[in-house]
Amino acid sequence: MNPLRAWLIRLAGLVPNERRERELADELEAHLQMHIDDNVRAGMTHDEARRHALVKLGGVESTKEAYRDRSRIPMLQNLLQDSRFSLRQLRKSPGFTLTAIAMLSLGICASVSIFAFVDAALIKPLPYKDPTRLVAVFESIPMAARSNLSYADYIDWKKLNTVFSSLDAYQRGGALMATPDGAKPARTARVSDGFFRTLGVSPVLGRDFFAGEDSPSAPRTIIVSHSTWQTQFARDPNILGQTVTLDGDTHTIVGVLPREFHFSPAEPAAFWLPMKATSPCELRRSCHTIYGVARLKDDVSIETALADVTRIAKLLEKQYPESNRDQGAALAPLTEVISGDIKPLLIALLGGAMLLLLIAAVNVANLLLVRSEGRRREIAVRSALGASTGRLLGQFLTESLMLVTSGTALGLLGAHWVMKLLAALIPEDMLQRMSFLRGLGLNERVIAFAGVISLFALLLFSVTPSLRLIWSGLREGLAEGGRGSAGTAWRRVGSKLVVVELATAVVLLAGAGLLGKSLYHLLHVEVGFEPDKLATLEVVAPGAKYKDDKQRIALQQQLVQRIGSLPGVQRVGLANQLPTVGEGSTTWFRVVGRPHNGGHYETPQREVSAGYFETLGAKLLRGRDFYDSEDQSKPPVAIVNQALAKKYFPGEEALGKHLTYLSATPRPMEIVGIVDDIKESALDATTPPVLYVPCNQSPNGYFSLLVRTSQSEESILTTIAATIREIDADLVTLGPTTVRTMMNNSQPAYIRRSSAWLLGAFAAAAFILSVVGLYGVIAYSVSQRGREIGVRMALGAEPGNVYRLVLREAGWLTAGGIVVGLACAIAAATYIRGLLFQVQSWDLPTLAIVATVLGIAALLASYVPARRAAGVNPVDALRAE
Amino acid sequence: MKYISWAFSRVLLLSHRTCDTLLWQTNMGNKTDVWQGTLALMVLKTLEALGPLHGYGIARRIEQTSGDLLSLNYGTLYPALLKLEQEGAISSEWGVSENNRKAKFYKLTRAGRKQIEQETRSWEQTTNIVARFLGRSGDPA
Known about the structure:
The complex is a heterodimer. Chain A is an alpha+beta fold. Chain A has 30 helices and 23 strands. In chain A, the strands form three sheets. In chain A, strands 1, 2, 3, 4, 5, 6, 7, 8, 9, 10, 11 and 12 form a twelve-stranded mixed sheet that branches. In chain A, helix 5 (74-92) packs across helix 16 (389-425), helix 16 (389-425) runs antiparallel to helix 18 (444-471) and helix 26 runs parallel beside helix 29. The radius of gyration of chain A is 38 Å and the shape is elongated. Chain B is α+β, with helices and mostly antiparallel strands. In chain B, the strands form two sheets. Chain B has a three-stranded antiparallel sheet with strand order 2-5-4. In chain B, strands 1-3 form a two-stranded antiparallel sheet. The longest helix of chain B is centred in the last third of the chain and has 29 residues, at 110-138. In chain B, helix 2 packs across helix 3 and helix 2 (32-50) crosses helix 4 (77-87). The chains are: A alpha+beta, B alpha+beta.
């Protein structure tokens, strides 16, 4: 017995075979003849003998049928037949077919593309060993729940904790790399020796840092990222042992990281250096610059771990009250830290895309339903001729299968390109930081998602037309002879589907509207300065050349002078950190003359030049600006913003008061000016109290130049860069841009802009689809009621009555859709609350505009069929059918 | 009228009923699954006993052997023969019957003989087991 052989033969039997048919006929004929002969011999008449033989055989045709079923695979045969018929059907109405496939592929393309981003950021497992056991480690302070650790604290936490199998540290950084063409800026990350072991990552080439390699005395070694190996070293297999010179120090390459490795909190990083804690900051317990990452011990939960590190933080607070007061602890799953920022954005977009898909699918389902109405007679006849319900359903299934398969294939193809397009639209800098997006692509999870979507679509599309079969008796179709009223099944479901479509469109439109409004608010938020006609770039002075403060001050003054005299330049300022970026260092201070209980006033500090406020266009409310001559030889001075004055000097005049850092020897600085609040935080955050000190009193080798121009910012930037090279060819300049661009591309603005645009695009598509859907429903309803309208008009109804009849139906559907949609929109908007800025989820103007626009569009869409109905000649209408 | 005939011609192409195959009708009722396998064994045994034979001959022989207890629907024999042929247990060729009719003759292959052995064994086993149950339930102790 060989079933496989049998199946193969039966598969081959699918090819029609005339000989086999003939032989079967011959064989049965011979059978009958032999039987008849026997019967006749037994004494029957010839007719009787033949009849008896036939009865005994059970009929020639049904025997042949059973034989055929056995000679091939009936299910497959049916499928082939159904497919051929479906293809013919679909080809016969290309309008329907193309519309359905186009809508479906649009929906699938949108949702799959967005899902690919969701997958890369949130679903794809992190490229570490057992990533769910990894936690990000922070100190928590009153100003920020997740703040960095000081090196000394990190060492103590590492020693004292009982919950981590390992705890390591990292810090994002930058350096100047020596190249044959001069110094180039390079992105680096500094990590403690066990960092990669904690993550469970091993280099693909060379070795990991060994224990103790991060001690200051160890030889300088370095691990390079995979992309650095690829681009800067052309995949040189002999890269190990080569050297890289960063900031004047020579490092030996000992390893290359795997291609799939990413660690966005420290990236982009071309080079990974062992953290040799030698800087003055790292020797001070009060200087917080690093972040921690730890692996939980096997049986330890994150809550237990948090309790343990909190205990340590308390211990240290007691032991070192000066530096560790109010320094708590915080832990978070590493996943959350790596891609948590864009989670709300992605969820909102995925929701939008799925809604668009829903609308598209509902539209297609409605089309299918309408089509099945038109095919009532065909189905009735088939069933009367003996087609089983299963067979009829199989036909619908095959047709939907063809639609869904082509829609999915096209959608995936589109998604492949759309994904690339969307990734290309992300600003370069932001894309590099979101290093997890390197995993973006049509991988197995994305394909599976597309598969699940298409299965649902398939189910929906084959169930909808089948409902007709179930609800209305099959034979009705024959009996009625097509003279029926509008299909009841369609009336029951089809017209209601359009309510779903309209409601979905309302949700998407409202979402896009709210996000658009948020973006507008964000870009017009009061920043406290004039962002237009402001050019900026960062300058890095190599430390080897600009060692002491005098040299740095001289350089800064030269820069301000030379650039300030360029044509078109009105004013030049310097700062260690620009407004609206939302990053920067903070400091602790106290007010001189007030009793000090050891508490920390923590506030962001900016080091700025004289003329910085004027360049920005910020308003100095009281007092004066810094002087150019105010360096360390002069008494320390400070300017504070109004928020600081209000917070720490309520009801007092802050001007003339003295502040001091919490250093061992107090150095009181006088508040010489109060400036109106400048947005020193990110655009969507409230401006904190800020302390400004003259950069001449604590000069940096790394600062931002700010240039107010009277001409276009872009053109002046090249001149500025050239001037800086003239001053000293060793100076490195970074990120020339305009302040306006910088604000527009900042993360809060980018997240809202991208979501507003994408949701806007989804909403536009949804709007069109739903209005077209409504038009289709009304037009179809009118065409089905042609006779009824004809009768009404023949009996004396005015065109106005007909209008009312049609528009009432449309009105109910539209009103239903809008009301349901508004309710859903408010609910949906609470989900994207995090993305909204200065807009409530129930923002009335937005909702009102959405409702009005959709209402008017719906009215127009139903007016067209209404006019056609009213213009009908009753005699024609009555005769037509 | 025209419309109906158009639909008719198109529909004919499609409508294939799935055939409900009631293979056997015996005085014991319809036990298709049991009898389907058994029919194959009966065919094979018949061919083993009589040598190459045509379908009609096989059908008659089965009826006779059963002492006319089985009433065979001859039509069901042909799909069963096709199945055996597809599985390689029998082969067929055209020949001439005893009363000079051209007919298709079936004969056992080597695989078919092996199948008889196998199926006989498993059939005996089955009847054995069933017999034990029947014997025990009939036992008054």
